[in-house]
Amino acid sequence: MLSIKDVAQLAGVAVGTVSRVINNSGAVKPETRRRVEQAIQELNYVPNEVARNFKMQKSKMVALLLPSIWHPFFSELAYYIEDELDREGYKLMLCNSSGKPEKELYYLEMLQQNKVAGIVGITYNDIESSVSTDIPIVSIDRHFSKKITCVTSDNYEGGRLALRELVKAGARKPAFMGSVTAVYSETMKRREGFVDEAKAMGVDYVVYEKPDPVTDDDIYYGEFLRDHADVDGVFAITDMFAAKYIERAREQNIRVPEDVKVVGYDGIQDHAYFHPLISTIRQPVEEMARMTIQLLYKKIRGESLDLETYRLPVTFRPGETT
Amino acid sequence: MLSIKDVAQLAGVAVGTVSRVINNSGAVKPETRRRVEQAIQELNYVPNEVARNFKMQKSKMVALLLPSIWHPFFSELAYYIEDELDREGYKLMLCNSSGKPEKELYYLEMLQQNKVAGIVGITYNDIESSVSTDIPIVSIDRHFSKKITCVTSDNYEGGRLALRELVKAGARKPAFMGSVTAVYSETMKRREGFVDEAKAMGVDYVVYEKPDPVTDDDIYYGEFLRDHADVDGVFAITDMFAAKYIERAREQNIRVPEDVKVVGYDGIQDHAYFHPLISTIRQPVEEMARMTIQLLYKKIRGESLDLETYRLPVTFRPGETT
Asked: Smallest CA–CA separation between B61 and chain A, in Å?
C-alpha cells in the first residue's frame, strides 16, 4: 500500500511538504507544488478522505452570511469563526446580507455547486423552502425550521436572569423592551424568559414591543417614555436598545441606574473605556463561534447531529446601569 | 460576429440569464447554467474580457487581510469593501492576520495560483521581497515600498489639524502620544504633521512614543502621566489610545476636557450613545474602501496607476474631549 512517504520520496521533498500540498495549507513554492502533484499522479496516490477531497477539488471555503460585519457583536463572532476555520485550513468568505435576500440565495447556489463547503448564516430570510435537511448549513441565533441546525445562546434563561437581576437591583416594575420579527426567531425567547420569571416571582411587569426593524427611534423611545413613566427597570433586547434608551431617558432627566435600572443583552462592550458600561446578559460569543464550525464540519462529513438547536449558557456581566 | 443573444437563443433562455452565468452573479438553476455553458462552448463564444475571464476560470474572489476584524475601524472598512466588491460580483475572503505572518504569505501564494484575483492588505509584514510591482495588491494605511499601491487617509494633514484643534481648545503644551512600528508606516506621518505644525505655530510640545505594539498599558500610560504632568493637550495616534489615556487620567483626578484636551484619530465611534465621544480626526473609511477596490480592479485588468499612494482628506469631528 502506498503511503505519503512514497510521494515525498518520488518528489524529493519532506513528508510535511506533501501534506501541505494535499491539505492546501501553508506556503509551498509553485515548482515544489508541481513536483508533488506530479508524484501523486504518477503513483495514483489516494490514501484517505483528505486526499480524496483534494482530488475531487472539494472547496475548502465556508461562507459566512451576516446582516452587517460592522456591528460589534457580528464582528466578534466573525473573528472567532475565522480563527476556528483557519485551524483546519478552511477559508472564510464574508457576505453582508442585510436587506439583500438575493445574496443569500446566491450563496446557497454556490453551495450546491460545491464552490463553498458550507454556510454559516445569521440570515433574515426564510430559506426553509430552498434547502434540504442534510445540507451543511448552521444558523446562529435565528431558528427557522427543524431543517437547519442552530447554535444560540440560552435566550430563555437570559431573559429570566435579566428579570432577577433587575429585581435584585431594586426594580419593582420592570419592562421588557424589544422588537418582533415577522419570522420566528430564537431571540424572542428573551421576552418569554423575562415574562415567565416575572410571573413566577409575582413581579408587576410591562412588555413593550414594536415590529422589527425599528426605523424611527424618536417614536419608539418617545412612546415608551411617555406611556411607561412608572417603570423603574428595563431589560432591553440588545445592548444597543439599552444604550439608546439610556441616552433618551437622560434627556428627560431620568437617571440610570438611580431612577431606572437597565440590563441589556449581547455584551458588545469588550472593555470599560466608554460609558455607561451596560449591565448585560453576555453571550458566549467565542464558544458559539467554535461550536458552530465544529458542527458544520460534522455536517460536511455527512455525520448526523444529536440536536437541532444547541443552546449555550449565558452569564450576567454587571456594569454601571444596575 | 457572435453576440450574447445567439447564446441566449441556442440555450433557450433570456439574455439576462446568460449574463448572470458569464458574470457568475445572481441565482441561476444548475440545469439552466449547464444549458448556457453548453451553448457558449458550442458557439465558441468569447465576446469580451468578462467572458474571457470566465473561460480562463479567473477567480472572482478578493482576499482581505486585516490584523483583526473585531476592531471597529477594520470592521467598518470590511463592510464597505464587501459592498463595493459585491457591485461587480466579486466575493470577499477574510483573513485575520495579526501575529500570523505565514497566513499572509499563504494568500500571496493563492494569488499566484489565480485562486484569488487580488489582495487588499492591512499587513504588518514586509512582503516587499515576495511580490512584483504589477501584482494586484492594494495596501491600506501601511506603506512599505513603492511596489505596492497604498490608499490612506491624509495622516500628515490629520496631525497638523489635531495640533491646531488642541491649541484652539486652549492647550498650551500639547503632547503627541503614539507607538512606533519597526517597519515604516504611513501612520507615522500623524506625528510628523503634529510636530511640524507645532513648530510652525511656535507651540511648546511633547512627543511620547514607545515601540509597537504596546503590551503593558500600566507602564505606557503610567510613565506618561508621571513624566508629563505639565501637558494640557493630547493627540493620541488612535481613538483607542485616547480612550485608554482618558480612563487613566480620570483615576488621577485629571479631568478631560477641563484639565487636558484630547484628540484621537480614526473616528471609531459612529454614534453618540457611549461616552466620552472622543474629539477626533475622522478617516473617510467608506471612500477609502471604495477607492481601494476601484484601484484593485485596475490592477487586475493590468492597467497602470497614476500614483503610488492615494491620500484622502480627513476632517475634525468635534466630540466631548476638547
From this structure: 9
